[in-house]
Design brief:
8-stranded mixed sheet; globular
Length: 290
């Protein structure tokens, strides 16, 4: 069941692209640049999703976090509340249509509308030779990583239109540009998100909705543990980085979730009002363009 932890009194959303001022002056570029916005972030109780929720919330947005497990939702909500972030939490498996619909409907009911969607949910149940993958594995990976991302967008767009516009951000991966060994099906699903971004952007621009994508490199998260847990594999990846870090300044010398969260928040802000259909790679300088 959706749990709402703040009052419903939110500021009215302006038409996308317009400059908005309050008594203290323009909010653009300030820590309140997303005040009055409502943001759904899927798979947002850990890693990049949680970092995105934090970044959006720190800029004034009311964030709706979700996970398949209630205990994870409760933990994330408590953390965000301790940081004075407006937050609502619910369980949601984006692979299930009834969960997607409930997430969107309850967000509108409790928070008044939707301005931002960060589609972060992804699965990778397979690690090995791509020729050993099965039809069932492909179905699961594509259903969650690609189809659910589109269907969530389809659900939120009418609510964004009512608010005068909005922003959608898909979380892809460096693997979407350069498939990683043993992660073939997952890599293909992330490449599909690059195409989905380009396909949706011109159509939704007519409704003042921007669609962009972020492609992280090797980031220290539980989801990517298989990549950085093996020192030999990690060393090979680190050879490809232009930005060299010591483990003393960054865990294992790779990227941090907060560095992706900040880019996502930028793409949802007025500072990115002239950006749509783009993918920003956040990889430490790894060569990863198609």
């Amino acid at each position: 069941m959706l749990r709402c932890f703040v009052s419903r009194s939110l500021l009215t959303n302006p038409v996308a692209g317009q400059t908005r001022k309050m008594s203290g002056g323009s909010l653009a570029g300030s820590q309140s640049s997303l005040a009055g916005k409502v943001a759904i972030v899927t798979a947002s109780t850990d890693g990049i999703g949680l970092a995105a929720a934090q970044a959006l919330g720190q800029r004034g947005a009311h964030v709706v976090v979700s996970s398949r497990r209630q205990s994870n939702v409760d933990k994330a909500v408590a953390l965000l509340q301790s940081e004075k972030i407006q937050v609502t939490g619910t369980t949601c498996n984006v692979g299930k249509s009834e969960d997607r619909e409930r997430l969107v409907n309850m967000t509108v009911e409790h928070c008044g509308g939707i301005d931002i969607l960060v589609s972060n949910a992804a699965v990778n149940p397979f690690f090995g030779n791509i020729m050993d993958s099965t039809a069932a594995l492909w179905d699961k990976i594509l259903d969650v990583n690609v189809k659910a991302a589109f269907l969530m967008t389809q659900l939120v767009v009418p609510h964004m239109e009512k608010r005068g516009g909005g922003s959608v951000v898909f979380v892809s991966s460096v693997a979407g540009y350069q498939p990683m060994q043993a992660l073939g099906p997952y890599s293909v699903s992330k490449t599909a998100l690059l195409g989905l971004t380009r396909a949706l952007a011109p159509e939704l621009a007519q409704s003042h909705i921007r669609v962009n994508c972020v492609a992280p490199g090797i980031i220290k998260t539980r989801f990517s543990q298989a990549l950085w847990h093996d020192e030999d594999v990690l060393d090979e990846f680190k050879k490809q980085l232009s930005i060299k870090r010591l483990p003393s300044t960054s865990f294992l010398g790779v990227g941090e979730p907060e560095e992706i969260g900040g880019v996502i928040a930028f793409l949802c802000s007025k500072d990115a009002s002239y950006i749509t259909g783009e993918t920003i790679t956040v990889t430490g300088g790894m060569s990863c363009r198609l």
